[in-house]
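Appendix B. Worked example

We walk through a single record from start to finish. Start with the input: the chain for Nephrocystin 3-like N-terminal domain-containing protein, Ophiobolus disseminans, length 612.
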Amino acid sequence: MSTAVKVKQDGDDFQPRLPRRTTTNLSVDFIEQKISLAEHSRYIDDIDRFVAVQEAPSHDERMTSIWKDASAETAKLETAIQLLREKSRPKGAKTDVETPAFTWKQTVAEINTALESYKNSAFVRICDKSEMFEQWLALLPNDSYASAISGAFTMSVKAARGLSGVNKSIYEALASIPDVLDHAGTYVAIYRAGASTALVRKTADLCKSIVKTLRLIIEFITKGSLKRFTGAVLKGDHYQQKLKESIEEMKLQADNVRSEAGVCAQMRLAEVDRKADVREIKADMRSKQERLDHMAAKEELSLQMAAIPGATAEQVVNLLLRSIQSLPTYNRRTGGPLQTSGLLSLLNVEEVDADAAPENNEGVTVKSLLAALDCDPELLKKDLKYCLNLGFSETPDFQDRAAWVLKAPAMSNFMSGDTGSKLLLVHGNDDATQFISPMSYVCAKVSDLMSVSDEVIHLTYFCSRHMDDWRDPRANAQGLLAHLTAQLLNQLESRKRRKFSPDLSSLKDEDSSRIEGSSLSTTWHAFETIIKQLPKNTVVFCFIDSLSAYENSSRRPKTGALMKKICRLIKTLKGASLRCMVTYSGRSNYSDTWGVEFDRRKAIKLEVPESV
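Next comes the structure step. The output line below is what the pipeline stores for this chain.
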């Protein structure tokens, strides 16, 4: 494990070193490497600007002073972790094994593994708040802090399993750490935007208290493992009291950080007010232009289809891609040609006489199934309008991230590449606390453009718009699937040229009751029954946005079960094709449990760069 500091143990001569975190700012990289003035300046990540080379050392000295105590405490934690590793090492194992560099992702994986054996509420709390805690770790001035903290969590979860009687208190102490950063989205955003010296200082104090709490936990486990047979330390009044006091100090420091973040926010609002008029005018102009561009693209798409009597879905998707990506042969964002080889003959089947379509006179009908699904078609229109309007009025950075996805070759391949069912998983790698994201705008924009033709079947659901269990009891995976199934039935029913009525004879009256009772398996049976009956070469596009909203502890099991079913159908579906795009504002922590390999054949993973 990389060390956070270099310690001089000569009285008060302690001089912590703050290694520079690897930059992901492409603009900074370009200036440093290409601009001649770069040799006379240096980029300071903390204040997000270049300063004269002569000024940089004073900034470094100030930051070193602020983080001195946190660095010293981190060094103690690393020593404690190393001691626990040595005491936990099996007899006969090599003693010169280098301590690894831990990551928070490894920690979450370790806790999820433990959850399979121990149904512990503390584990669930840590997992539920892991995204926010990971964002906080990214604020720290170098990676060694995050490595030490992640290592302490990982080692504690592993080691505490062997200590009967204390593991519950250890787990609760561990869970209290992410707890103190619950609802810290505003603080994290303010810090990222440019923290004041006072906020940096209080963040360093919070870091120190968190690291100290973890050190006490590690020391408690280490002492317990040494004397587990005597029970002297396991009774642990002294250690438990120190740990309790440390947790209280940690909570106090978290409150101080929130208070200081509020002060920074007020100062920033005052600054914004001074510039508000100009910004509002520019934002309003940008929003109107974006809205006009979308309306013009939609109108042009309609005119182009009107000029092609009997346009097939293949032609519609081709026109749609050209509209989205501006140029038919070159992708300006990714610098490469669009991958449009092997375009699909979507729904290129013979005309179906509506009167000749199979009828289902007994049992479940389309009408009764729609009644059981109980989904208001107007909800999707409202969701689309909301996400479109949000995208129109958002910042250029927001719109650039959406444009990057729309113009990516993976998007072209997903929409009109080689034939067959596919899964496209999009990691927005943006602020994971914001469920409405640039990816929501992407889904809304594509879905709205597809709506100009009934030749293309497209199903859309915005998880982030349906999260309130109190107002919507079906704000979960079954509700998601119910909406997709209802949209599929309605679109098949409303098609002008190629109507198709599915045979629902395999569904019984009691199935309708189960669907009304929110049965995921029965709703899936209905959806799968319809999809498998669609004519050969039919393609159904499905857009599921912000699935992370349905991956909290209460919704996660059914969400995972639904995604496994969708992935299994994508791998096995014959005749028709299902193309499902699933988006995350940040990243998925559970896609590896869906039972699909992202090998770019049946499943593609698209990573949006942090800087576009």
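Two observations about the output. The CA atoms of residues 13 and 601 lie 59 Å apart. The two ends are 32 Å apart (CA to CA).
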